[in-house]
Amino acid sequence: MTRWFRLYDDVLNDPKVQRLSGDTFKFWVNMLCIASKNGGVLPSIEDMAFALRVSNDVCTSLIDELKTCGLIDGGKRLVPHGWEKRQYKSDTSTDRVKRFRERSRNVTETVSETAPDTDTETDTETDKNQKKIPKKRDRSAGSAEFDNFWSVYPRKINRAVAQKAFEKAIRKTEADLIITAVRGYKFADDEQFIPHPATWLNQERWIDGTPTSVRPQVTEAEKAAFLEEHQRWLKEFRKQQLAD
After folding, report:
1. Which of 60, 89, 118 is the last residue of a domain?
2. What total number of domains does the chain contain?
3. Is 58 among the domain residues?
4. Which of 89, 123, 153 delimits the end of a domain?
5. Dist CA 211 CA 213 (whole Å)
6. Does residue 84 fall inside a structural domain?
7. 122/218 Cα distance (integer angstroms)
8. 231 shares a domain with 153
9. What angle do CA 33, 37, 39 make, to 5 degrees?
């Protein structure tokens, strides 16, 4: 676990620290790091020497020098000078974070518990929330409407695809309007020239409004298009049959 400890900027003016040699100053800073990891207490000479990758003799000599300078206190139990005074436990970042989160939580709870000024404000918020919830269409009603469409459409082919197209179509217009348009639509006498129900729906043919009294004239181009569509569907159907 990574820890933080205080290093006061007044070290710059501390003669005991500033008179240290470069190696001893480095040892002193490293010693503070070791003390931080050990609750403010220095471990044995052997453990310190191992941590700092120096010999026991070098470690002992440097510790004696820091004792002489007044930067290490104690006898058997060695501690950096002034550690308890400057490195108090309440100064950890964890405690500060906890205090900050607690304050934030209190503010959030206070705001959330604030009652609306008027009943109208409450009603307005409720209305907004209700508007955001999309209305779900009754699946059973949609299925019944498609059944009615399927029963009146003159060409029964690829029901599953037709149902998907129907569900898409009734998002644009009323199901009754589509069914009425099918009843009034003058389809070709030859079934192979009648578009698939999904095609009729996807092309929004219910908008055409072909009068029942007028018999549509099927052009050669339309015949060719119908035949091509039929052949394509037949090819896909046979491919699916082989795969099954």
Report:
1. 89
2. 2
3. yes
4. 89
5. 5
6. yes
7. 62
8. yes
9. 115
Residue 15: give the domain boundaries: 9-89
Structure tokens that stand for 183 in this block: 């009843």
CB 233 within 8 A of CB 198: no
Residue 145 lies in a domain: yes
CATH code of the domain in which 69 resides: 1.10.10.10
Rounded distance, CA 60 to CA 54, Å? 10
What is the dihedral sign for C-alpha 49, 54, 58, 62? Answer: negative
- Cα 10 to Cα 7, 92, 128, 227: the distances in Å are 9, 20, 60, 94
| Residue 201 confidence (pLDDT) | 93
| Rg (alpha carbons) of the chain, rounded to whole number | 43
At residue 74, the 3 state secondary structure works out as coil
Measured CA to CA in angstroms, residue 92 lies from 29, 43, 44, 50, 176 at distances of 19, 22, 26, 27, 72
The three-class DSSP label of residue 239 is helix
- The rounded distance, in Å, linking the Cα atoms of 182 and 206 is 7
Query: CA–CA separation, 13 vs 232, rounded Å?
Result: 92
Residue range 27-48, pLDDT digits in tens:
989 988 998 888 888 998 899 8
pLDDT tops 90 at residue 131: no
Q: Helices 56-68 & 45-52, crossing angle to 10 degrees?
A: 110
pTM of the predicted protein model? 0.37
